[in-house]
Amino acid sequence: MTEASYQDFIYMADLIGVAVFATAGALAAQGKRLDILGVVVLAIVTSLGGGTIRDITLDIHPVVWIADTAYLWTAIISAVVAFVVCRYVQYPRRMLLILDAAGLALFAVLGAQKSLAMDLPALIVVMMAVVTGCAGGMIRDILTGQIPLILSRDGELYATCALAGAIFYIVFDEYMPGQIVAITSMMIIFVLRMSAMFADLRLPEFIVAGHKLEKVKKGKNK
Asked: Averaged over 56-76, what is the pLDDT?
């Protein structure tokens, strides 16, 4: 694969990631009594928030959606389409989680690719991958009054999936063709996230020796 075709692949994957995350952000507005402007804003911060934080952190100016407004238009159009379609078509709640997992996979690997292209240390590349993949969802959850998945034990291996995919990308980037290693890393993140959701996988919880977690008792007020 030539360098030009690889860059075209990265660009299209980036736009697809924006569309997927924007749709997930719009679907998160369900039950929040938001109008179409609120839904569009939620979609924009979900799809572009992680990349914006990454670019500002790495001192990349202008940020991606200012340098290329196709990103912004993709987010807006995806949000409007989701707003219209969801008024007439019911969708399962799992769809939001599946779209979120797809967006996480796309953005985490693209964040790793862009950071690695700047010859940054491996640790920073991994951090930027997690930021790119997770920050938009964190902003979305905060705006909708939810505990961010990345901070919740019930998040079912959210940031961990991005870490695994980013590490795979860094390790095998020199040994595999660019498109192959990128797609494989995305699949690792997506499959891990799906497995975590359906198999209820979680990381070990912090418990002090000699103590047990207290179970929350429902229906009793003290």
From this structure: 93
